[in-house]
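Dear Dr. V.,

Thank you for agreeing to look over these. As mentioned in my earlier message, I'm a first-year student in the group and I'm still getting used to reading structure tokens, so any feedback on how I've presented them would be very welcome. I ran two proteins. I've put each sequence directly above its structure. The first is here:
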Amino acid sequence: MCEPGNVRTSLPSPTSPGSQVQGLGTCKGWLFKWTNYLKGYQRRWFVLSNGLLSYYRTQADMAHTCRGTLSLATTHIEVGDHCHLVLSSGGRSYYLKASSEGECQRWISALQQAKANTTHLTHHSDDSGDEGPVSQAERTLTQGALKTLVSKLEDLSTCNELIGKHGAALQRSLGEFEELHGPTDGASDKLKAVNERAALFRITCNAMVNACRDFLDLAELQSRRWHRALQHEREQRHHLEETIEQLAKQHNCLERALRDPPITRQGGAEQTEGDESDEDDNTEFFDAMEESPAFITVTSTEHNQNRLSSSRQSMSGVLATDWSQENPPGQLRRARRTCIPDKPNYSLNLWSIMKNCIGKELSKIPMPVNFNEPLSMLQRLTEDLEYSELLDRAANCSSSLEQMCLVSAFSVSSYSTTVHRTGKPFNPLLGETYELDRLEDYGYRSLCEQVSHHPPAAAHHVISQRGWTLWQDITIDSKFRGKYISVMPRGNIHLQFHSSGNHYVWGKVTSTVHNIIVGKLWIDQSGDIEIVNHQTKDTCHLKFSPYSYFSRDSPRKVTGVVMDGDDTAHYILSGTWDDKMDYAKIVDRSGGCGGPEARQKTVYQTLPPKLLWKKYPLPENAENMHYFSSMALTLNEPEDAVAPTDSRLRPDQRLMEAGLWDEANAQKQRLEEGQRLDRRKREAQTTLAVEEGRHIERYLPLWFEKRSDPDSGDSSYVYRGGYWEAKESQDWSQCPKVF
């Protein structure tokens, strides 16, 4: 356990590095250190002494094998979340994790105190990796050299003492000699004593010079050996990195070779349109185990038509109308832009940037705009409204179950634009907003605000003149795992229809970007969505199947069952999240009738499926415009009278869209550094308030406030009002300066 309060003074010793600095505290204890992708965090013994932080595999290794050392004089200390801290120096980084918050705070205090006291320590360039143990011959040779250096240093100390002793005696003899005024017998004796002591002093000085020369020769010899050893380790590490990258390429080649033989699928099912464009030889497949279907559907046959005709007639006309592809979202009353500048073709070594980011949260990784798309996360949230017509149709449904089908299709449609979108949206700055006023076009107004910096969280509110209101509070939790990036949205989406009062709540699934190191990037959506109508207790369980090459199902498959409050199934939903969704009314069922296990074996007989929703085609030249949809192309279009915090005014995002990526990178670095400075100021003010016993003034969003939902019990950010009134009067005096 770390005990930074137990401070002792370290006296200079021959074996103590940096022994010129005295009075520095020591701290010892166990910490978890990130080693590599295969082993993850490993327990290591850390020792903080004389401004140097060293670590060992075990306490017993302190006598002979140090695994790495950092000089705190040149080390940047970054405190993360959940007991994490990062120490960076000279291009090397230690990713550490304490066992508890208290332990983490004690280490942070000890490290910061040691850093403040080590401004004169030299920089030590020991390797920071967890290398394997050195050979016995190397260890013996190193120990022998250290013992020789210690012996020589002791000789120097002895000579120093003798020089001081003989020098003092010589001074006394010279003083006594000066007191004599005539040639006497006493003078002769004194002169003889002076000559003897001068001879001793000369001999001792010569011994001192010889000992210094020996020590210097040994030190230079060992310095050259250690320099060669360090250079060898660096070359080995570089070779290992190249080997790992080559192995990743070979692994990808083996996967492609395995996929070369065509697989014959029964049933003659045709591939969905667009498969050829987004799957090629470089695609990496997620080999998930194929799960048993939750249900079996059988389309009704001709001899059942009489019995089913009444069921057809009972269906709502709103839901029975097929989704018409003849009405694309381009029918706008105001002409909006249909293209943006083509994306520049800049090459970038992805592995050289991402290899040091394994295990870190994606929002905390500083990245160039080469990995981004010219939209912010607030605009990506707003893009969920691309198929708002589904909610307009749902508002006119008389049946809550049919309304549930349309709401479910809307929840799936929000993922349709992500199939090619491998770029990372810009992380919004704290206080950044984004409005989308489409009253004249689609009858709704949308507002987003970044309400938290770490963890990154955004609040979204939409109100429609066509009978519905939607709001959501989403926190993005993202991790880089080496070969893929996982993005896990936390929070719920709320939707309420004005006429019926039906209140729907659902979440989001996990998005995964594959082939980060080698191959073509591709995105998959996987997980479950449970949509609940808190007014009628109707539910819909949607399952997003993870992509698997060995599965016979269609890629990107989504299935669902719509049930009433008594768990009776009424509709079957099926389709893909990147293309379309169908619905089919259940007219008969057989098999299990009670409990989840029994329901897994249920066979549903349905009417022929009908189209519920279909994705609009991408605009021309979309592959050179970040694969943006028609709506996405308009999201960053300049608008008059927007708030000064609006994402459209963000300079780095605007420069990236124009193709000026170098200038965009400079602006992005400036904005992020300013945000980090503001965060440190808020933390310092909070610490000062705690020390003085004052009330802590936490950051409060401008347009949203946290409330508890009476139906679901969730606590989330909801719109407090005032934005559109401020826009009407052009009074933005409350807005902070974020750009």
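The second protein is here, in the same arrangement:
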Amino acid sequence: MEQAKSALKTVQTTVTNSIKDFIGADKGNKNNEQNSSATKDESTSSETYETTDASKSSGSRPRQLSIRDIPMLENVQEVKKIFNRHLHFTVAKDRDIATSHDYYTTVAYTVRDHLIGRWIRTNQHHFENDEKRVYYFSLEFHMGRALSNCLINLGIEDTVNEALSQMGLNLEELEELEPDAALGNGGLGRLAACFLDSMATLGFAGYGYGLRYDYGIFAQKIQDGYQIEYPDSWLKFGTPWEIGRPEHLIPINFYGKVIDDENGKKKWIDTEIIHAMPYDAPTPGYNNNIVNTLRLWSAKARGEFNFQFFNAGDYIRAVAEESLAENITRVLYPNDNFDEGKILRLKQEYFLVSASLQDIIRRFKNSKIFSNKNKKIDFTYFPEKTAIQLNDTHPALTVAELIRLLIDEENLEWNQAFDITKKVIAFTNHTLLPEALERWPIDMFKKLLPRHFQIITDINSHHLDLVRKKWPDDEERVKRMSIIGGEKQVVNMGYLSVVGSHVVNGVAQLHSNLLKSTIFKDFYELNPEKFQNKTNGITPRRWLLTCNPDLSELISSKIGDDWITDLRELSKLRNYIDNEQFIHDLQQVKLENKKRLVKVLENDFKVKVNPNTMFDIQVKRIHEYKRQLLNCLHVITLYNRIKDNPNIDIVPRTVIFSGKSAPGYPTAKLIIKLICNVARTVSDDPAVGERLKVIFLENYRVSLGMYITIKSF
């Protein structure tokens, strides 16, 4: 994202009390839009680790915002006071009748109070400084639990813990009551969540856009070795970590037809309209008072409840429109093994893209640069103020939708709209599998999104003209590179993403190289300057500081705390590679973490494990290319070696699998069944003993992952 790099600079001055407070109450009322908006993306060079916060180009510390006049949880007594206020006036309970969940909700609101002032102030700061904002589009945000993350990033964990302890409550037990936000499934969603954390920590005006799924992908149960899917009712009791924004309800169009009006301009009419309702969740940076926003869209029916049908006794038809409309955000990745599922999946992707782009354009038009009423909206500034990152091909329709909005709604010419679109959009590819590129049948696509098919046809024509110009006598290459067509007559969303972006990256150096030599080889030869590498990383705040406090404390005791925002600092641990005391302490931390995991396995999964065995763990989405099958074959090999030679000298091993298969993916489900059968066979064999144990942990999620991938080492 070379063009974004210059705009995504960190502010080099720490705002202190001696600096002018930019927030005055009168400024806070200037633009109501700022109560719900603020965004930006993390920039990295082609070989940095994006989400490790190592990309501070100026070498400065992350920006700190002034928090003058914002109420603080300065001491234990203040926490207790706010806690009791929320228990009585928000939850409407007293200590005699409050449940454990009531106490969790109360402490969540107490912490949220500490976020709100910083959240509003961050948005006002972005408006006043008119910063370039980066919008991260992803169909998944695998966020995990919010409470523990907020406590760590805000630096109030010890204070809140002590306050609760004095009231006879246990913070760790209350944290366990929070359901994981069911917004993702695999690494793609976890990367998106890590980006949000890193953007806020680095002080970028970062914004995430996703969908607010009612039931996530599903809650997984293992019955007789088979995966059974159930609704993940994470919103059953509501969530204190979101705020609805009905004032920004956005209409989304489907179906209809395209006509030429009296001026020869294309007009999309007779559409079916579904409304997108935004819900905002705060995403705090680490120890810098910055709170960015994750905006999630929920589908709402356009029409009202039909009293005529209801009064006539036709109760199903009375709510049919509402139910069908809101199916768009019921679940993540609906089963697309049949046409209805494919249509719903395509609707989801367009719903996300259209709502988000309309919201971005609204924010751009309300930005400070146009605050003078006599200042005309000028979209030539749009690339200077906006960067959009596509997280895989799911949001590929961003290309066509942004062009549509610029041409049809903002009256730009086609060439200008396409040029702006390319300057704004960057594309991350996650896998080389053809299925991940997404190909939609032309007939289905034209029916659902007729205007977009016209626009993609124009994009393709422009693109193929460039191909023919470079290779004038190579029609085979032209066919290979066409966005539309092919043997199965499809619209290729991966190709659309490449053509409509100014930067394309893989997520590891090998992966990025393979992109250029395999699936996007022709496109690389056409525009080699587009292709970069961005090696994925993870946020150390959640995956080390939060879930492995003992290891974090040991590291900080040797090299200080700077590693929390710059993992390059960990290289200083090389100085202790021969330090016997440090190695001993490190081994002790590892053993204690394994013991904690053993307790979780015994209490939650009724499985007894020896903590002194070697833990061999593979947790990720179940798929043939993820190689759980290969790992299982290795387990079978180990088992056969023990059976063939009962006296074999072998390192005792506990093999742990966890992950979900897509509901419509029978092969992946059979891999789960095989693992469970192998686990039962090994566990029931007394000749094996503790030398080999196999476990499949059901319903993998971020909170479980924090135990089995971190507390095991």
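From my reading of the second output: Residues 242 and 281 are 5 Å apart (CA to CA). The first strand starts at residue 133 and ends at 137. Does that match how you would interpret it?

Kind regards,
E.
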